[in-house]
Amino acid sequence: MTQPHEKKTVKKKRKPVEGIKKKKNASSKTKKTVARGRKRSENTKKAPIKKHRMTPVKRKRKKKPGKQGVRRKKQSPKIILIEIGITVFIFLLVVFVLSKVTFTTIKLEGYSMTEQLNDGDRLFINRMKSPSSFDLIAFKDSKGDVLVRRVIGVPGDRLYYKDDQLYVNEEEKLERYLENAVSLARQGGMKATEDFTLTQLTGENSVPENNYFVLGDNRQYATDSRYFGFVDKKAIIGVVEFRFFPFHTLAGF
């Protein structure tokens, strides 16, 4: 019997699609790029990083001082000393001028003003102030010595003493600065100030113009207008404002 013919199955070859080829080519390209990237990264890891050195900033060198600069430095202390000397001189000159016009200081000598003032006291004198009754004034006597006494009579005053009581223009005047001296004198049966009248001592009924009648507080031992007469206004240095030395006896008058 004849065998039936077997049908031969022929596999048909599929034609490659253009899109698939393109995808394969693209994938191969991406693989290549990835491989290149890996190589580059490996190379970059292996390659040492170059450090950029900072360019140093050039500093300007200070010029050494020449001979003139050294001379100026050497002369600067001298200039400072000269300036100090000039300022001190001007200051002393100003003080001197002011002392001749406005104020001055003196050192008291003697005990004619005890208990208010003592020998060696330093006093501040106001040249600008005109004397009033019971002010302490500094003046020069006929010998040129500087004295300090208390004003008892000003120009035009009539005055006298009786039983340790001062009368000026027929009015009683209280002298508190003499309270201790008067009490001590009375205990000894004496007077602190001997009785007198202005006419008996000077021949004048009142204190002349531009003149002053002065007494020392230590009445029993002081030399004052009872002995040398009136004090001319021209001889007066000024009015005693305060005692500044010794410091523990600082006091104003």
TrEMBL record:
Q: Which residues form a coiled coil?
A: none
Q: Which gene encodes it?
A: lepB
InterPro entries in alphabetical order: LexA/Signal_pep-like_sf (IPR036286), Pept_S26A_signal_pept_1 (IPR000223), Peptidase_S26 (IPR019533)
Q: Kindly state which keywords UniProt assigns to this record, in alphabetical order.
A: Hydrolase, Membrane, Protease, Transmembrane, Transmembrane helix
- Write down the NCBIfam families for this protein, in alphabetical order: sigpep_I_bact (TIGR02227)
Question: Which E.C. number(s) belong to this protein?
Answer: 3.4.21.89
The superkingdom listed in its UniProt entry is Bacteria
- According to its UniProt record, what is one Pfam family this protein matches? Peptidase_S26
Which Gene3D superfamilies does this entry report, sorted A to Z? Umud Fragment, subunit A
* Signal peptide per UniProt: none
| The protein, known as | Signal peptidase I
The catalysed reaction is: Cleavage of hydrophobic, N-terminal signal or leader sequences from secreted and periplasmic proteins
- Example GO molecular function: signal peptidase activity
Where is it located? Cell membrane; Membrane
**CDD domains recorded for this chain?**
S26_SPase_I (cd06530)
Mark out the compositionally biased spans (Basic residues).
8-39, 47-72
Q: Where is the Peptidase S26 domain?
A: 82-245
Transmembrane stretches in the record are 79-98
* Topology within the bilayer: Single-pass type II membrane protein
Regarding protein family, the annotation reads:
Belongs to the peptidase S26 family.
- Predominant location: membrane
